[in-house]
Structures are given as structure tokens and as C-alpha cells.
Amino acid sequence: MMVTFIIVSALLALAAGKPCASDHENLLLSLNKQLLRSVYQTTDNQDNLPNPSVHIALRLSKHHNLAKESEHLKRLKAEFHDDIEKSLSNNEMVVGRLALYILALKSSCHELGSLYLTRNEIREPLLIHLKREMEEEKQNIEFSHRPKTSYYQYSLGILALCVSGIRVNTHVSHKLIHAVVHKQIKHGESSCVDSHAMAGMALQCLKDEGTAVKDAAELNRALATIKQKLLDSKRNDGHIGNEFSTGLAVQALLAMGSQIEECGTAMEALRTDGRKGTYHNPMAISQILPALQQHSYLHLKNKECRSEDDSLAIDAASVSEVLPNQGKVSVQVEIIKSNSASSVFSLHVPMGSSLYEALKLLQDKQSGFTFKTEESLWGPFLSEINEEKARQTDRRYWHVSSDGTALTQGIQDYKIDSAQTFTIKNTGY
Ligand code: B12
Question: Exposed site from 61, 72, 116, 362, fewest CB < 10 Å?
């Protein structure tokens, strides 16, 4: 009796799942088109570089626009490549961006051996250069107990080498395994989930490839620790961490062998966010789209670029709705400098303005407030306020919160729809 009931319920659930399945396909298609549109949309930002993470997501999708994708690849090889070389000439580390670039080239089955980076007149193949920066990072961990960049970028580096079939030095992998097992990966707040997810994919790749590691049992312990960390970070609404870490967390869980049912509520949370329009930043879409298609960056390992669908058309961009003037809201901006000195500024901004627009207005009022940003794959990163810098090189950043709650979006994406107080605090990490 019970068995019949279970079978009938399962059949009913399957039947009910049909319309959902097509809803799911529609959502995938709309996110895929949004991402494709982002690659050639010009913005007011002149430094709008092609984004390797977006390329990877387009290439991991079921539907393609092969002409647009190959045009994008060309731009990556010119503009993004140049940007990396520019950073090298400024003696900056490029681990994370180089790793994403390599993964993007892999996603288009591009021959990696034919590409070189030039620094101080020395030409080096991309993978050799990445290997060298990983050695440098490993030494930094040895002496300072953390990479110069972050464990997120260190994991991306291991992942890119592994996916490209390059043997990762056992000392390099050991540093990540050790950091996971000894709980040294923290970035404050939810980005800790993103970093664990990236570490999970990197270490799973090593395991799948049978790469020699210092201690195989410890590798398994690290993978188990990561899986537990991700499952423990599940919120009641299904998100793992927050809206923007759930995609990478699902990718990692799937890569680490979780069954799709185990990620069911997280997938549902992603779909709900997707339908609500939470994901409009191309970088955010690029991290969740592979997860929604049950893919992870590990799929790049065996990517064959043969007989691909070429049906992804771009509709004319929908004209964004012009909202009626809804009036202004009052905003307070509290700045807390590194010496704890604080100052408060008040202004009125049109409802729906971004925090970036609000800060620009404040600056234009010449009320004693100035700010600067640096471009990144996620958009403008707030790097300087009233001539005080807080940047990665100083291991500090301007942390942004609204009415006491940390923002989960950057200053350009966060929209102001009610009166509120922002606190922007120079914070060490
Ligand atoms: C590490 C990290 C940080 C570090 C970066 C320094 C370091 N040690 O590397 C610190 C702690 C400074 C940081 C700060 C913030 N972060 Co953060 N961060 C990350 C993380 C885990 C990895 C980024 C990375 O290295 N990418 C790889 C490299 C190759 O790409 P990149 O673009 O060159 O990387 C640089 C930028 O991404 C920049 N950066 C980091 N975070 C953010 C956030 C925004 C909005 C922008 C524009 C840039 C930016 O720092 C990176 C290193 O230079 C991501 C996770 C993810 N899923 O991407 C979250 C993530 C990007 N951060 C996020 C957020 C919300 C923030 C903050 C706004 C938090 C806050 N309330 O203040 C601030 C930024 C405030 C500001 N000043 O503008 C969100 C963004 C979501 C969104 N929709 O925009 C993410 C996705 C985490 C999450 N799941 O919520 N972050």
C-alpha cells in the first residue's frame, strides 16, 4: 500500500515537473541571452574589458552564438591579454585573472602553447607564467600564512593548471589542502563560501586527475571539510551563503559528487532569484548559469568544441522601462577612517539611484567628500575616500553597509529605494 502511494506520488511529481522543466529552460535561455548581450554592449565606462568569466559561462552553455563567441575570444586575446601584461609591468600579481583567462581559452578549445606573456622583454608561455606566480604565492603562504592575493585566486590558479593538464607541484597543492583543513580560509562574511567553493573545485580536479599530492588522506579530509562547510552554510531559503555565492557553491557540490537532489533547494533558490531579476551583473550571471545547467568549471577539462548548437540569437535589447519620477529620498553617508575618525554627510537622491550615483552627487556638491574607484570584473571597486586609500595591496578595504547590514552588492549595483544610512568603513582583513 505504502509502496503504491510512493510510486503514485512520484509519478504525480514527475507530471507536475513538466511545465516547471520548460520554465527552467526559458530561464536558462533568458540568462544566456542576457550574458551574450553583455559582451558587446557598450557602457559609459571606456575601460569596458571583455570578461573571461562571462566567456567561460557562454561556452559551458547548451546554446551558442558561435560568431559572437569567437569575436569575444579574439577580444580577450587582445584587450584582456594586454591588460594582464600591463599589470605585470606594474609588478602586480595576476594569478586570478590569468587563471580565468586560461580557463576561457580552454573553454573555446584554444591552443594554449601559442600564447605568451611578455614582461621585461622576457617571453613566457601563459601556463609557465601561472606556475611561477603560484610558486611565489606558495612562498608567501610559507612566510606570512596567506597568499599575496587570496585563497580564492590561489584556488583558481590550481584549477586552471589542473584543467589544462599541467601537474601541480605537491607543495603548492599542500598549502591549499592545509589551509582548508586548518580553517585558514576566511574573508569575512559570506565570501568565505565562494572561496571554499573554488577550493573545492580545484582540489576535486586534482583528485580526479590522480595528481600526486603530499598526503592523499589529507586531500580527502579537505574535500570533506569543504562539503560540510558548504552544506552548513545553507540558509532556510535554500541559498548557500548568499544569492551571489550559491552558484559557485552548487558548482562545487556537483563537482565533488553530490547528487542533484542534494542541491535541489539551492537550485530552486537560484531560479527564484533569476526570475526576480536579482542577477543583472554579467559577472553574477556567469557564476550561476553553469550551476543552473548542472555544469561546473571541471567540465572544461574534457571540452570538445565539436558539433555545437548555434541557435542563440540576440533579440533587440528590451527598452528599459522609464519609471515615473518617484521623488527623492534622504540618504546619510557615514565615513569611518582607519584612525576611527568619522564624518557624516547628508543628501537627497532620486529614488532608484545607485549608491555610486549618490556618492557622485555628494562629491559634486563639494561638501568635503571625494572618492575614487578601481575597475574590476564585478564593476567599480571603491578604493579611496577623502584621499585615504584602502586596497588589496594594503590588505584593507572600504566595507559598505546600510543601516547596519553589509551590502551584498557593489556601489554600482546597489539601488537606493528608501531613506537609509550607509556606513563606509576602512576595514582590515
Ligand atoms: C576576495 C573577495 C573580496 C576581497 C578582495 C580583496 C582580496 N583579498 O582579494 C574583499 C574583502 C576586499 C572584498 C570586498 C567586497 N566584496 Co568581495 N569578494 C571576494 C571574492 C571571494 C573573490 C574575488 C576575486 O578574487 N575574484 C577573482 C579575480 C581574478 O577577479 P577580480 O575581479 O580581478 O577580483 C577583484 C574584484 O573582484 C575585487 N572585488 C572583491 N569583491 C568585490 C565586490 C564588488 C562589488 C566589486 C565591484 C569588486 C570586488 O577584488 C578582487 C581582488 O582584487 C568574491 C567571490 C566571487 N564569487 O567572485 C567576493 C564578491 C565579489 N564580493 C562581494 C561583495 C558584496 C563585496 C563588498 C561590496 C562587501 C561589502 N559589503 O563591503 C566589498 C567591496 C566594497 C568596495 N570597496 O567596493 C560579492 C559581490 C556580489 C555582487 N553582486 O556584486 C561577492 C560575489 C561575494 C558574495 N558572494 O557576496 N571582496
Answer: 116
Per-domain residue ranges of the chain: 25-40+49-300, 328-428
Q: And the C-alpha cell for 399?
A: 566595507
CA 377 to chain centroid, in Å, comes to 8
DSSP code for 367? S
Spacing, Cα 114 to ligand 1 middle (Å): 32
Q: Which three cell numbers stand for residue 393?
A: 595591496
Number of alpha helices (DSSP H) and beta strands (DSSP E) in the chain = 14, 10
Nearest CA to ligand 1 atom 22: 152
- In words, the CATH class of domain 25-40+49-300 is mainly alpha
CB distance 62 to 294 below 8 Å? no
For 233, residues 6+ apart whose C-beta sits below 8 A from its C-beta are: 190, 193, 240, 241, 245, 249
Q: 328-428 in CATH: which number? A: 2.170.130.30
d(CA 307, CA 73): 18
Residue ranges lining ligand 1, Cβ < 6 Å: 96-97, 100, 149-150, 152-153, 187, 190-191, 194-195, 241-242, 244-245, 248, 281, 284, 287, 376-382, 392, 397-400, 406-411, 413, 429
Query: Contact 176/147 with Cβ under 8 angstroms?
Result: no
* Main-chain dihedrals φ then ψ at residue 158, nearest 5 degrees: -60, -45
Average pLDDT per run of 10 along the chain, which is 429 residues long?
50 48 91 93 68 98 96 97 96 97 98 92 95 98 94 98 97 98 76 93 97 96 97 96 97 95 95 95 98 97 94 75 77 97 96 97 94 96 96 88 97 97 95
Q: Is 156 helix (H, G, I), strand (E, B) or coil?
A: helix
Question: What's the chain's Rg over C-alpha atoms?
Answer: 23
Q: Closest by alpha carbon to 47, among 305, 380, 283?
A: 380
